[in-house]
């Protein structure tokens, strides 16, 4: 067969070009053209024309009404690692493709080795393909994890075609590709790790998963900006995308489902990195609180919702006199949102920070995406500005709008109950979230507007 020739496809609009260009000729986007091996050297226009029948699109096929198709439940195998099964939506799915991303050294290889060993012990043959480490290094890790006499097959290989052939001959139930950035296909001339290679290898592995029922887990690198290296299409291609989060300096790790065709998204699994690998934390609601014996200024506890469970996270703010161009920095929270909240504070609550540096941090390396963090961010900023701590046992949540209104957060009752369970005693919440019946142990103040929340907190001093 003729070796396939490269064509360049725009990752934005799908337009093609026979050679690489900085700007897409179709949609004028910059740096979007990526190499792809879809054109045959025979000069045809697409794969179909490789048969020599240009324009022939195959025979018409019978179609089936949706109602006549039987909806079969997907077969899942729980790995036995409860926190991982939770983010996967119950377990590994036959023929499912999972992409798992995260910073280097965060624990991707560790978690996957633990998972495949657990699956192998349940009788599911597993293949661990390592492109980054040698077999000896993987073995060393397995000894450290205490996985004695593990029967997981290890293959140290980076060429896609050889990996596919090995899968065909050994017939595993699950294959780990650690990592997709180290793999390369013979079909393309570009180097491993290039966008074209990553995409092509992932596409082949996905096709193999779907046609054979082998579950595939791809490990992906994360760029400095926090996105998975490689084109966005990688995330579109797979069934499930998991991200490892957390501060490498602390022992806690979060695994978050960003996309899941077989389960709920934004579900999180919480782990602690120990001497013997990752251990699930089954009751994580209080791990993101720092341990102050007395309340300190600039600290406010937020009850956030991660997937189906409430988590208490301490938000810290430091407001300090800045230079001519004051800085606004946030860790774990959106910086644009911080700028917006400062503008709302100024306009609707008369709290001006224009000449101040403002730093905001979510404790423990957790990333908070939900807008219900707004009120906690604002109250921690005002607390730091005044140099006055919030009352002991104080929690809050609620979104703040540009007009200074406080909007309700989903599942307020659950958040309040979790906080009460952990011994928090005072809450400021959006009016619509105030429960009809009191919750034992916690005094709830309902507010409509941000200035109301700020003066209410002052009154609690
Ligand atoms: P690793 O799984 O290699 O990270 P990744 O594949 O995401 O790059 O994890 C490596 C880190 O985890 C390393 O800093 C050592 C630490 N670690 C432990 O603390 N305990 C253990 O049992 C293991 C295996 C690793
Ligand atoms: Mg690794």
Automatic annotation (TrEMBL):
Per UniProt, the keywords (alphabetical) are: ATP-binding, DNA damage, DNA repair, DNA-binding, Hydrolase, Metal-binding, Nucleotide-binding, Stress response, Zinc, Zinc-finger
Name the segments for region: Lon-protease-like. Answer: 357-461
Q: Where is this motif: RadA KNRFG motif?
A: 259-263
Q: What is the protein's given name?
A: DNA repair protein RadA
**Functional description taken from the UniProt entry:** DNA-dependent ATPase involved in processing of recombination intermediates, plays a role in repairing DNA breaks. Stimulates the branch migration of RecA-mediated strand transfer reactions, allowing the 3' invading strand to extend heteroduplex DNA faster. Binds ssDNA in the presence of ADP but not other nucleotides, has ATPase activity that is stimulated by ssDNA and various branched DNA structures, but inhibited by SSB. Does not have RecA's homology-searching function. Plays a role in repairing double-strand DNA breaks, probably involving stabilizing or processing branched DNA or blocked replication forks.
What GO molecular-function term can you cite, just one? zinc ion binding
User: Which family does this protein fall into?
Assistant: Belongs to the RecA family. RadA subfamily.
GO cellular component annotations, sorted alphabetically? cytosol
Coiled-coil annotated residue ranges, if any: none
Which segments constitute the RecA family profile domain? 73-222
> What organism is listed for this UniProt entry?
Comamonas koreensis
- Highest rank taxon of the organism: Bacteria
- Where does this protein hold ATP? 102-109
Provide the domain comment: The middle region has homology to RecA with ATPase motifs including the RadA KNRFG motif, while the C-terminus is homologous to Lon protease.
Name of the gene this protein is made from: radA
Q: Give any Pfam family that matches.
A: Zn_ribbon_LapB
Any single biological process term in GO: recombinational repair
């Amino acid at each position: 067969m003729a070796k396939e020739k490269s064509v360049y496809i725009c990752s934005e609009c799908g337009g093609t070009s026979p050679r690489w260009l900085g700007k897409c000729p179709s949609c004028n986007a910059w740096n979007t053209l990526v190499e792809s091996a879809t054109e045959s050297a025979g000069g045809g226009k697409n794969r179909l024309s490789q048969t020599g029948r240009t324009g022939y699109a195959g025979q018409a096929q019978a179609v089936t009404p949706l109602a006549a198709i039987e909806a079969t439940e997907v077969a899942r195998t729980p790995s036995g690692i409860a926190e991982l099964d939770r983010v996967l939506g119950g377990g590994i799915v036959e023929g499912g493709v999972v992409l798992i991303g995260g910073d280097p050294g965060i624990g991707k290889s560790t978690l996957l080795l633990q998972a495949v060993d657990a699956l192998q012990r349940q009788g599911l043959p597993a293949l661990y393909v390592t492109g980054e480490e040698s077999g000896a290094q993987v073995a060393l890790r397995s000894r450290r994890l205490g996985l004695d006499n593990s029967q997981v097959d290890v293959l140290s290989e980076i060429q896609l075609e050889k990996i596919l052939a090995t899968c065909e001959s050994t017939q595993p139930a699950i294959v780990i590709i650690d990592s997709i950035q180290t793999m390369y296909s013979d079909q393309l001339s570009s180097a491993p790790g290039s966008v074209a290679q990553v995409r092509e290898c992932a596409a082949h592995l996905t096709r193999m998963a779907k046609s054979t029922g082998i579950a595939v887990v791809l490990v992906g690198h994360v760029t400095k900006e926090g996105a998975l290296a490689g084109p966005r299409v990688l995330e579109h291609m797979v069934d499930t995308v998991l991200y490892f989060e957390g501060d490498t300096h602390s022992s806690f790790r979060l695994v978050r489902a960003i996309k899941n065709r077989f389960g709920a998204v934004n579900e999180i699994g919480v782990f602690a990195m120990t001497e013997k690998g990752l251990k699930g934390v089954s009751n994580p609601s209080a791990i993101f609180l720092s341990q102050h014996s007395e309340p300190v200024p600039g600290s406010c506890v937020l009850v956030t919702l991660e997937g189906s469970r409430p988590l208490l996270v301490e938000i810290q703010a430091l407001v300090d006199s800045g230079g001519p161009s004051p800085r606004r920095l946030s860790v774990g929270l959106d910086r644009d949102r911080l700028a917006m909240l400062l503008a709302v504070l100024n306009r609707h609550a008369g709290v001006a920070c224009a000449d101040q540096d403002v730093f905001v941090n979510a404790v423990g390396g957790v990333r908070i995406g939900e807008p219900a963090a707004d009120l906690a961010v604002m109250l921690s900023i005002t607390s730091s500005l005044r140099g006055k701590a919030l009352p002991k046992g104080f929690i809050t949540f609620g979104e703040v709008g540009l007009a200074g209104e406080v909007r309700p957060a989903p599942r307020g009752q659950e958040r309040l109950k979790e906080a009460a369970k952990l011994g928090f005693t005072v809450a400021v919440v959006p009016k619509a979230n105030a429960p009809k019946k009191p919750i034992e142990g916690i005094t709830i103040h309902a507010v409509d507007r941000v200035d109301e929340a700020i003066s209410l907190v002052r009154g609690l001093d």
